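TL;DR need structure tokens for one chain.
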Amino acid sequence: MKRAITIILTLCMVIMMLSGCGGGNAGNVIKIGVYEPSSGDNGAGGKQEVLGIEYANSVLNSVEIGGKKYELKLEIVDNESSNDKGPSAAAKLVSAKCSIVLGSYGSGVSIAASDVFGNAGIPVIGVSCTNPQVTEGNTHYFRICYLDPFQGTVLANFAVDEFKAKKAYILTKLGDDYSVGLGNYFKVAFESLGGTVVEETFQEGNSDFTAYLTTAVNEKADVIFAPTSTEAASLIIGQAVSQGIKIPFLAGDTWDSSVILDAAKGSDSKIFVSTFFDEGDDSAAGSKFVTDFKKWLNDNPEKLKNNGGNDIVAAVSALGYDAYMVAVKAIEAAGSPDPKKINEVLWGVTYSGVTGDIAFDDIGDAIRDVAYIKSANNSDGSWNFVAIQSVK
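>> reply
TL;DR here they are.
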């Protein structure tokens, strides 16, 4: 009797192991990994990027391949905005047998996890990771956003065009690929336009920015460029307001967040950001997305909370939506949930998204040539569209 029980238990274990080997495709399920921060310095932005992906999944949650219908399931992990913890979060998506991965908000964590995905043969579509190193030297990492050399040049042009800026103060976070990289691209572009710069960096964990802001004032900077996380940005804005600083702030896509609007609300600070999408976009695709996404948010209290407690549409949410749809197109084009086949066809995938037309170049980067510039409306805590800026 005991032997019979042992045999039955052994058979059960074998069946469970075999079903596990099917991973993301067991039971006609294809898993799409979501590698994003929901905690740490960039947790707020990561949550908004995930919201766009989750909304897209609610719109399109199945695909037909070879006459067989597959459920599209999201496998979400928190990389904690940490380069050190990112690889272990990525490994969870590998273990879950994801066919393709989306993410991350934050170039540093994207770069940190790249080899984990590459070694597993899983393609990744970067959503808002703008540092060039994300796609350099590999064939598995793609992205649908513009890059920092472009973004830095756009912002430098805007500083000169809008403020006739001659001197810029640049504040970046030491060791942060995104922050340091974008700061450098802005510097190169600003100096090429005849401007001069003063640069400083702050370390991980710093919460007092008063001395840095004082330097910007004493140096008579015309603009302050601070490509930082939303957590650091909130502190910088609050301390600038306390010091009565009137110098305009410029920042990249990370500042396109409700966290920034909340920090600036009721003040007279001037904040301008470059970003990927504006909810005032009056195109058919853009306006429909905004209307439907807002309804989805308001119908789901927990989702609304993850958006900062309001229904303002962050550009990264629109990008997240587009990234998911590109992933689905790649799965359909591959005719298979096999990551290798999906990786092979991704190069030729094109998609007309809510953030514009998406196609990849020979490195895997999206072909983009314009950025939106928005300013914080401090009276009602919203964004005002300023301009669509390109490189001269």
